[in-house]
TrEMBL record:
It comes from Pseudomonas rustica. This is Uncharacterized protein. The lineage of its organism: Bacteria, Pseudomonadati, Pseudomonadota, Gammaproteobacteria, Pseudomonadales.
């Protein structure tokens, strides 16, 4: 490494440097979607606006964590490079999500340090004198390794409005404290051999042993066979938000 910090204790290893960057929480909050007790109708889209724009060139990483259940799709980042202003995503309107409260918590993280150092603190900079870490940063702790092609078919599929939805799932952490990386998992549609369709993902009520999802098809012969192959991982903030 050229610029950074490395420590070793027995078999444990810790490293933060200009090459091995860490994700820092840049903003967080809650979202309302579905049918909360106070909502007269189902809210089909959650729109999040950051308190201040995020000025990184690359789009921030968006993480979601439903309070209980929630199945979402079509996440879109708002703004542009150097001025990311927020994001929005839609509710999967298959039962039971279209009649349930699917609200939860969100956070966004970047590979840039934005915290103000405390009076006594550790600060690291790269060759361009950019701050890459301070002890005041709220880092994301990965609690589940990145997985792709980890999906297996389950029995939760069904037909809704002419679309044949195949249900799929992957192993998860079991904890309600863990967020899933949504900006890669929900960031677009897939081509299933017939057309492009949304691939909603999230959690069923009371279930955190698996992350679940659906893939749609317009013909019955394709229904029940397609699997989501996108990558995601579980993470939680190092400090309370």
């Amino acid at each position: 490494m050229d610029y950074g910090f490395r420590s070793r204790n027995g078999l444990n290893f810790f490293q933060i440097d200009s090459d091995n960057k860490v994700l820092n929480v840049a903003a967080s909050g809650t979202y309302t979607i579905g049918k909360p007790p106070t909502a007269p109708v189902t809210i089909t889209r959650a729109v999040i606006t950051y308190p201040t724009p995020i000025t990184t060139v690359d789009a921030p990483h968006v993480f979601l964590n439903p309070n209980n259940q929630g199945m979402y799709h079509s996440l879109v980042q708002m703004g542009a490079a150097g001025a990311w202003t927020g994001f929005y995503f839609d509710l999967h309107l298959m039962a039971p999500f279209n009649g349930s409260d699917c609200s939860g918590r969100w956070l966004v993280a970047t590979f840039r340090s934005t915290s103000t150092p405390s009076e006594y603190d550790l600060r690291l900079r790269n060759a361009n004198n950019e701050q890459i870490f301070v002890g005041a940063d709220n880092l994301l702790v990965m609690t589940g390794f990145p997985i792709n092609e980890g999906w297996t078919l389950d029995s939760r599929g069904g037909q809704v409005s002419g679309i044949y939805w195949s249900g799929c799932q992957m192993q998860w952490t079991g904890s309600y404290d863990d967020y899933f990386l949504a900006s890669t998992l929900l960031g677009g549609k897939i081509y299933n051999g017939n057309t492009t369709l949304a691939t909603p993902c999230g959690f069923h009520a009371g279930v955190r042993s698996t992350l679940n999802g659906y893939v749609g098809a317009l013909v019955s012969s394709e229904g029940g066979t397609a699997k989501n192959g996108r990558t995601t991982f579980a993470a939680r903030p190092m400090r309370p938000l």
